[in-house]
Each structure stands twice: as structure tokens, then as C-alpha cells.
Amino acid sequence: MKQSLDREHMKVLVVDDMPSMRSTIRNMLRQLGYVHIREAEDGRGAWNRMKAEKFDVAIVDWNMPHMNGIELLRKARADEELASLPFVMVTAEVNEETIAEAAETEVDAYIIKPFVAKILEEKILQVLDRKSNPSPLEKMLQAARLFADNGRYNDSLRELKKALLLHPGNPRVFLGFGDLYRVRGMTDDAEKAYKKAVMTEPKFMKAYDGLAAIYEQKGDGIRRTLTLKKAVEVSPKNATRQVSLGKILLESGEVDAAVKAFRDAAGAEPKNSVLKLEIGEFLMEKNLNDEAAGMFQAILEQHPEDLHAFNRLGIAYRKQGKHDEAIREYRKAIQIGKDDENLYYNLGRACLEAGMVEEAVTRFREALEINPGFEEARRVLEEVIKERSMEG
Q1: What is the reported pTM?
Q2: Rg (CA), the chain
Q3: Helix pair angle (187-200, 171-183), 10° resolution
Q4: For residue 70, what pLDDT is reported?
Q5: Which of 58, 133, 279, 313 has a 20 to 30 A CA-CA distance from 384?
Q6: Could you give all domains of the chain from N- to C-terminal order, each with its CATH number?
Q7: Helix pair 341-353, 323-336: axis angle to 10 deg
Q8: How far is CA 243 from the centre of its chain?
């Protein structure tokens, strides 16, 4: 591979929320001979650039607002066009949890701050060489996945058997067998393959996920819960898995453990308001309204103008009978979303529940002024007026 030629034509994406760090990396890259350098200040901006332009490598900071580096990597790995984009993650520290998180999200390489241009060069060359010159094992696993995706299961099985002969104790080979058997509905064989992967590599998170999926298919809630608990113990910063565990625990009546899992999930991705909204909605569905309110409040701390979060927080308060708190939040929200009929309607409901009938009538009328076709508001208003006339 002619590195000088590659550097002249390759396109590199640098993602960091600190302008000074982006400038430092950009200068290093220029010293190394890279010409086409693009930048993004967070994961969301990087995602937009990655979807609009083709990059050869991404150098991404681990901790960023809005969407951190690991979230961006997960999203890229799930996208067919971006799945193979090499990622070099930049982090301030590496501990066991970090290593587990990096491994399960398939980070190609990571650099610990502070670093020099030589280290950056070595990491870039390392990931590019790995992509351009995959090992025989990698080629077999790639072929097996491709065959399976196209329904050529016997060809996929053949490639996996070749890989097993080449590397008889490799957990990725066992994972391949498990995935293939799971697709074909061979749940017992898939379970055995995933177990072999875990026994070979106890920190192989994809094998735990495969096992959890098999137990879900089998309707074995106990073993699915135990598998997820073990996975969370090994890699506690995977928010998606923490949420899955929380939902299972809650369904089985382990409320305290479930709430802890949800809080750990939110703590793993503190900037992820979509995740908090999902957790809050699930908690509210299960009548854990105080915990749900905490999630909606956390969203509003980051996004004070999020009208949907205001609405859900008000409903969570109303379900607890905390009408004063609900009214307070709806009034705040109306100052932001003066043309949102749902806010006026929900404020009207809260006022009605608090015995503030006159204000409730006013709020329902305001909702109908914004949207004359709001039938639910019209129905409730007519009922309130009818009750008042009967009382009079």
C-alpha cells in the first residue's frame, strides 16, 4: 500500500467538541501528509457529515455532548454503508469498563490523551492496513455473514467450518455458528454455540446478546435475565442492554433492581434524551410515575424547551395526584409553546383535577381557539359546562 499516495487522496473526519483538540489533530494530520480533512463538533454533526460524504477513517473523541463517540460508532456499525468505516477513538483514560465498551462496539483502535503525531500515524496505518488486508479468518467470517444474509446457509456453514479448522478456539467463529443457527431457527444449536463463545471469552458481549435473544425466543425469562445480568456486570456502560434488563426485571416484579438498571442506563449515556424519554414512558406505563418524572426532569435540565418532555412530566405528576406541580410545569411550557393546543388541554385537565374549574374552562377554550377540531377538548369542555349548569 502506497501510504503517501493514500494520504493525498484519503478523506479523514475529525470529531471533537473542543475546537482546540480538533485544531491539534488537524495540524498533526497535515504534518503527516493528509490533505482532505473534515471536522464535526459532536456525534450528531459527524453523523450528518458521514451520511453526506465518504470518509476513509474517522478520528472521534469518546466523550462529547448530544451524541458521544460510542453512540456514533454504534449507529455507524448498524448502517450498511458505514459499517466498515474505521474508527480511531480518542479517550482520556482506559479502564476495564472502557475496554469492554470499546470491544463490544468494535472500535478499530483507540488513543489515550495526550498523544503525539507518531502515535496518531501508527493507529491510522494500523486500522487502514487491517481493512485493506483482512486476515484469512476475517475473510472467512465476512464470507459466512454475506452468504447467510443472502440465504445461502450451506455456503455460510462451509465457511464457518473452514474458520473453525483454522482457529478451533476462536470465540468469533462460535458466534458465527450461533448467529447462523439462530437465523435458521435451530435454537438449541445456537445456544450451544453462544455458550462456547462465552466459555472461550467471558467478556464477549455479542455472545451474551445472542444467548439472551435465544432465551427470549424460548420463553425462558429466568435464563434471559441471568444472562443480561452477567452481561451488564461485565460491561455496565451499555445503556441499551441496561434498559432491556430493566424492562425484564420490572416485568418480573423486581422493581428496585429495575429502577437501578434504568438509572444506570441513563448514567451511561447522560446526554441521550431519547433514551431517557423511552425509559420515562415505560416507567409511566408501569405506574412508576415518580421515577418517570425524574427521567423527564433530566431531559428538561438539558433541553429546557422540550415541550414533549414538559407534557410527559405534567402527566406523570397528575398520575401521582401532584396537581400543583403539574400546573406549574404546564404554565412554564405554555410560555415556550404558546401555539401548542395539547399544553392548554393538559393544563386544563390538571386544573380540573385540582378543583380549579374556572381556569380549566379557560384553558380548554384556549386549546379550541388554536385547534377548533380538537374534539377531546371540546367534549371535556362541554361536560364541565353541563356539570356547572346542573349544579347552578
Answers
A1: 0.73
A2: 26
A3: 160
A4: 84
A5: 313
A6: 3-132 (3.40.50.2300), 134-235 (1.25.40.10)
A7: 160
A8: 10
